[in-house]
Hints:
- By secondary structure, the protein is mainly α.
- The chain is built from 2 helices and no strands.
- The chain has one domain.
Amino acid sequence: MLETIVVAVAFFGLGFTLLSLRRAQEKVGSLESDLDAVEGHNRTLQEQRDTLKSTLAETTTAHEVAKKRLETSETERAAAVENATRLEKLRGELEGELSKARREQESLERRVVDFQGQWSHQLNTLEAEMSTVVRQLGEFRKGTQLPLARGEGASAASQSSGTTEPGASAPLGPRLARSPSR
């Protein structure tokens, strides 16, 4: 009977061991499925991490490009401001020169108008004197005498010396009109 009891105890121990083994195998199966789930989740997280890394790299590259563009834009803006300032200064200088040129033009126009008036007056005087000379020449050709001042010899002498006697007439011939003094 002792053998029976030993066998029964052994069976009982064996049953208990089998039951413990079955529970351990269930735990191992559960842990393996949990491990598979964790590994799947880990792969998903790694893929998300890789995607985020590439997105971060793209964003960083875009940020650097934008930063360089901004620096270029700032440099160009500073150059444009400098050019605008320089152009504004040049515009002021040109306006001053234009104003000076306008004043000079107005002065020249006044001088031209004055000169034209004087020239016109002298031209009219010359034309009148030429007309007189032509008329006198025509009369001379006809055989009429030119009106000569009396004392022709005395006036000729005074003309050559540059003096005129009182009562002597002025020399015949063209006279230029004197321009009016300013």
